[in-house]
């Protein structure tokens, strides 16, 4: 029988402290979420206080000197010479932190010459909406506005339709069942059943009160179809309540009683040859409807301008305005041509240890019980670490962005067409940081450049060799494919094999299967479905 022995062995194990976990969390937060996190800490930790700008100015020069202590947020300058910043320089960013932990204060960089940047993130088939605000102190371009939802707007319009009380109950039931894009995907008989249950309740309540209910009666499925059609064709936007794409497009054409000749033909195409239209068999459609290709082309153009998702682009009750605030600003010095890299911390509060609470803690140290003293000590240590972690975050963020700007210098000089292949490992080697740290910095962060706002992940892509032996970013290849497809003959689109041959003429050796993969990633249909008259 084997014996069990207890043996002690030395072992090295790396564990994360709560402070390290908090720092990693701060590193991953983009600007908007960091602002919310800091405000939450201000509410929960009395040892932290926010210093307003007017207070800072009233304190005079001494306060200004105190604010500069430990500040590592100054802009990093990349000289016009692309190779002017070495790895040693990048690694030195944010390392010069003066003062003891008790003295460190967090001051986000304030630059009155910088504007606040925002960009609406909307789906491609939605209508962009802008808002104006008279308050110049508000930090965002896009606000959340109190606008009626699609459901509220449609129900309000029901008052202009001549409906019986029973039909109105059904109409409200239908509108309440619509999806966010305006389609009715719930079976109409189920909606009708729910409406009839509500009508029966109203009849019972009126009978119990002794009121007449001659205008209330249960509805049939044929009556429900008529109510649904009125919703589709008489309410704005037309097409809401449709169950299929074909029904939606037909309803939008029927909503216009004075249809032109081309709109009449478009309505016939949708009714009689919708499947052929989806497959783009224009020759079969022309034969079936007895029309010419020229007339059919104009009818198809009418259909092309219809809205396949009538409910999209409208605010719903659960929608919020999506705003992109860049975490970095890369600007060019017009005199020297240098790039200036700055953290966009314009919206973040200015923090420091609360002087009042520190004085209170020192004055009543002996009169407080043990638990209270421990609580105050813990809150003070948490506040100190938060201030130090925010400073360290700034230095790490600038390191990574400076390395990206150096490695992608041609992009910032020439634009997206000059993007080069780049992986996280390249940035990690240039900064001396771990790859996981680089990923945390890159994830969810944006940069404002002369060519627009880009997500940091945009600068990372694989490479393909060109004829001259130089590695080319796959994003550049995708842009070329997109341009070739945009300029192709519409009546005879390029196949994947043809696109591959065109790329080889330009010096890019891309196989047909790779072209198909990139085309699918860009959600571009095959050549047959891109064909137009």
| Average of the residue pLDDT scores | 77
Q: Mind describing the biggest β-sheet? A: 5 strands, mixed
Alpha plus pi helix count: 23
Report the end-to-end length measured between terminal Cα atoms. 87 Å
Strand adjacency order, main sheet: 2-6-5-8-9
Q: What class do helices, strands and sheet pairing give?
A: alpha+beta
The total domain count is 3
The proportion of residues in beta strands is: 5-15%
* Gross morphology: extended
Portion in helices? 40-55%
* Extended strand count: 11
Poorly predicted ranges (pLDDT <50, ≥5 residues)?
60-73, 97-104, 110-146, 315-321
Describe, in short, the structure shown.
The chain is of the alpha+beta class. Helices cover 48% and strands 7% of the residues. It has three domains: 21-115 and 324-409 and 432-457, no CATH class; 150-304, no CATH class; 461-530, Arc Repressor Mutant, subunit A (Orthogonal Bundle), CATH 1.10.10.60.
Would you give an account of this structure?
The structure is a single chain. The protein has three domains: 21-115 and 324-409 and 432-457, no CATH class; 150-304, no CATH class; 461-530, Arc Repressor Mutant, subunit A (Orthogonal Bundle), CATH 1.10.10. 48% of the residues lie in helices and 7% in strands. The chain has helices at residues 18-28, 31-44, 53-58, 61-67, 87-92, 150-157, 165-176, 188-209, 221-234, 245-254, 261-272, 274-279, 282-289, 293-304, 355-363, 370-407, 409-414, 424-431, 435-442, 474-486, 496-505, 512-521, 527-530; strands at residues 48-50, 76-78, 119-120, 323-324, 328-332, 339-343, 351-353, 446-449, 452-455, 463-465, 471-473. The strands form four sheets. A five-stranded mixed sheet has the order 2-6-5-8-9, with helices on one face. A two-stranded antiparallel ribbon has the order 1-7. Helix 10 runs antiparallel to helix 11 (261-272), helix 16 packs across helix 18 (424-431) and helix 21 crosses helix 22. Residues 60-73, 97-104, 110-146 and 315-321 have low confidence and may be disordered.
């Amino acid at each position: 029988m084997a014996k069990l022995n207890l043996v002690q062995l030395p072992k090295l194990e790396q564990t994360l402290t709560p402070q390290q976990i908090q720092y990693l969390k701060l590193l991953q937060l983009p600007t908007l979420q960091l602002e919310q996190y800091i405000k939450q800490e201000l509410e929960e930790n009395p040892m932290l206080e926010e210093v307003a700008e007017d207070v800072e100015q009233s304190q005079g020069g001494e306060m200004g000197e105190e604010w500069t202590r430990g500040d590592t947020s100054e802009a990093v300058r990349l000289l016009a010479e692309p190779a002017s910043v070495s790895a040693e320089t990048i690694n030195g960013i944010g390392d010069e932190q003066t003062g003891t932990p008790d003295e460190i204060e967090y001051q986000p960089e304030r630059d009155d010459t910088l504007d606040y940047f925002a960009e609406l993130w909307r789906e491609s088939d939605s209508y962009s909406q802008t808002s104006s605000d008279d308050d110049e102190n508000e930090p965002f371009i896009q606000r959340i506005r109190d606008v009626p939802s699609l459901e509220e707007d449609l129900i309000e319009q029901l008052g202009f339709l001549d409906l019986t009380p029973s039909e109105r109950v059904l109409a409200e039931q239908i509108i309440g069942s619509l999806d966010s894009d305006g389609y009715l995907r719930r079976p109409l008989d189920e909606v009708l059943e729910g409406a009839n249950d509500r009508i029966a309740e109203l009849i019972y309540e009126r009978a119990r009160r002794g009121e007449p209910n001659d205008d209330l009666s249960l509805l049939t499925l044929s009556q429900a179809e008529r109510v649904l059609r009125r919703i589709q064709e008489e309410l704005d936007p037309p097409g809401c309540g449709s169950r299929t794409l074909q029904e939606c497009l037909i309803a939008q054409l029927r909503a216009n009683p004075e249809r032109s000749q081309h709109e009449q033909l478009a309505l016939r195409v949708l009714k009689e040859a919708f499947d052929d239209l989806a497959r783009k068999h224009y020759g079969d459609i022309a034969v079936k409807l007895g029309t010419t290709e020229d007339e059919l082309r104009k009818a198809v153009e009418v259909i092309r301008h219809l809205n396949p998702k009538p409910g999209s682009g409208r605010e719903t009750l659960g929608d919020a305005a999506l705003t992109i605030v860049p975490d970095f600003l890369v600007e060019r010095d017009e005199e020297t041509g240098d790039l200036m890299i700055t953290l966009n911390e314009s919206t973040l509060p200015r923090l420091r240890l609360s002087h009042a609470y520190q004085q209170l803690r020192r004055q009543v140290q002996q009169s407080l019980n043990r638990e209270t003293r421990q609580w105050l000590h813990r809150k003070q240590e948490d506040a100190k670490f938060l201030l130090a972690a925010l400073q360290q975050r700034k230095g790490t963020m600038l390191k990574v962005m400076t390395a990206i700007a150096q490695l992608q210098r041609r992009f910032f000089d020439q634009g997206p067409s000059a993007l080069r292949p780049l992986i996280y490992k390249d940035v990690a080697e240039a900064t001396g940081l771990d790859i996981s740290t680089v990923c945390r910095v890159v994830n969810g962060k944006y940069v404002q450049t002369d060519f627009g706002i880009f997500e940091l992940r945009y600068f990372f892509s694989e490479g393909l060799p060109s004829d001259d032996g130089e590695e080319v970013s796959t994003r550049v290849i995708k842009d070329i494919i997109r341009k070739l497809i945009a300029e192709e003959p519409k009546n005879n689109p390029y196949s994947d094999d043809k696109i591959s041959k065109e790329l080889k003429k330009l010096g890019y050796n891309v196989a047909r299967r790779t072209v198909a993969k990139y085309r699918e990633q860009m959600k571009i249909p095959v050549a047959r479905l891109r064909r137009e008259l």
